[in-house]
Each structure stands twice: as structure tokens, then as C-alpha cells.
């Protein structure tokens, strides 16, 4: 799902990098990582709505479906915590003399799934 400000935000990231705001690849990595986090958060929003709808229906089958939905939600929350931790590490490394937020293996440390 595209957001209205996404194109503007991408343009701002590129402009910031061009104006001496750091390594353009670092900003693109951060932008990509934030978009991955937002994707998981959007999925969580959908899961929460499904859980609420199932709960309000008071149907036994729908209530039992909530177990799997809540388990997925719990897993996604752990994933978001991990992704934010990686973002923090990458951002700190980039601004404290690291290799643009990359570890020695050349990865950004993001976890897409």
C-alpha cells in the first residue's frame, strides 16, 4: 500500500544525500528498512482489525481463528522489535565511523521475514 507522502519522502532522502547529508546508499538503506518495518506494522493493523471483528461476531469458529491471528501478531511484534534494533545499530554505526551501517559481511542486518 503506497502512502501519499512516500514519493515525497523518497525525494527528500535523495535530496538530503545530495546536499552532503551523508552517504546516499546509507540513506537508501534506512529508507528501505523503514518501509519494511511499515509493511509489518500495516499487517499488524490488519490482524488487529480481524481479531476485533472475530471477537465482536461471538461465533465460536471466529473466536478460535483469533488464536492463530494473535500468534502471528505476537511474532510480528517480535520481528518489529528486531528490525528497529537492527536499524538502531546500522544508524549508529553509520554516524560513528562504521561502514554505512553495514556489518563486515556487507549486509544491512534487516530481517524481511
TrEMBL record:
GO terms for cellular component: nucleus. Residues 103-113 have a biased composition (Gly residues). Its main location: nucleus. One of its GO terms (biological process) is entrainment of circadian clock. Keywords: Biological rhythms, Nucleus. The keyword Nucleus applies. Residues 1-28, 91-113 are annotated as: Disordered. It comes from the Eukaryota. InterPro entries: EARLY_FLOWERING_4, EARLY_FLOWERING_4_dom. Pfam families: Elf4. Residues 22-101 form the Protein EARLY FLOWERING domain. It is found in: Nucleus. Belongs to the EARLY FLOWERING 4 family. This is Protein EARLY FLOWERING 4. It comes from Raphanus sativus (Radish).
Amino acid at each position: 500500500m503506497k502512502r501519499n507522502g512516500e514519493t515525497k519522502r523518497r525525494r527528500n532522502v535523495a535530496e538530503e544525500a545530495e546536499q552532503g547529508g551523508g552517504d546516499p546508499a546509507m540513506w537508501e538503506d534506512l529508507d528501505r528498512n523503514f518501509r519494511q518495518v511499515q509493511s509489518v506494522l500495516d499487517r499488524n493493523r490488519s490482524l488487529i482489525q480481524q481479531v476485533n471483528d472475530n471477537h465482536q461476531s461471538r461465533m465460536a469458529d471466529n473466536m478460535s481463528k483469533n488464536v492463530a491471528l494473535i500468534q502471528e501478531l505476537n511474532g510480528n511484534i517480535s520481528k518489529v522489535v528486531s528490525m528497529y534494533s537492527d536499524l538502531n545499530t546500522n544508524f549508529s554505526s553509520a554516524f560513528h565511523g562504521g561502514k554505512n551501517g553495514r556489518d563486515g559481511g556487507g549486509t544491512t542486518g534487516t530481517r524481511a521475514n
